[in-house]
Amino acid sequence: MVTSEFKVFKFMLMGMSMAVALALTCPARAFDIKAGVNKESGPFDLFKFGFKAYKNGQKEEAVEAYKYAAEKGHTGSRWALANMYADGDGVAQDDFEAFKIYSEIAQQGVEPGSEDTGFFVNALLSLANYYKHGISGSPVKIDLTQARQLYFQVASTFGVAEAQFQLAQMMLAGEGGSASPQQAKKWLNQARKSGHPGAMAVFGNILFDEGQTTRGLALMTAALDRCKPKDCNWMEALQEQAFSVSNETDRRTAISLSHTIASGSDD
Questions:
Q1: What pLDDT digit, counting tens, does each position of 63-77 carry?
Q2: Taking the model in full, what pTM does it have?
Q3: For residues 48 and 19, is the Cβ–Cβ distance under 8 A?
């Protein structure tokens, strides 16, 4: 599995709530003609069956249903199948197979306002992650330029905070293109306004280094209240380093301000 600061996150996808509601009305049974669903069924019926089977731990049945639905062009089933390959969830873990399916979704594109928008965006993010790290033993090599372009597409067109954060990180490091600290700050600021903890921490650290001591400390402190376990260590290291060189007044002011930021009252 690809490792990075972010594991491809699963969006609350457009249209998924309807699929879930409909799926829950159908009893989970083996994937056969007696269940009323078979390989000749419509793609959405197959998707509903696959989703319900997955939720009930019948992952082999889910994979089979998703595959048939994907062959009929159902984007949500392709997305679900790609995630299962990426995570080794119900199938042998295979990043290259996941990459190929995400690529199909990306190449298919999406119409403005389509219920498939979430699947499309997630596919682009997944591809960016693969290009950033490569896939060992496959034709997919590290391509930082392509990764940066994909993050930019998702950040600018869809306003996704994770893409904005990843793009900013690449801009700060000069990966996939020239270093651009000012542009990176812009994207970090956008992402942290959406509550992205990593963006809060990095943006706060930049402000601290620029002399905005209390504001920077406050953002780094607020980030710790939202961080995921896998990210808390590096965020805590940034915050502790900044606190260690700050005076007591700045620390107290920053802690107070961090509560305002954490409550969403600060923009």
A1: 999 999 999 999 999
A2: 0.85
A3: yes
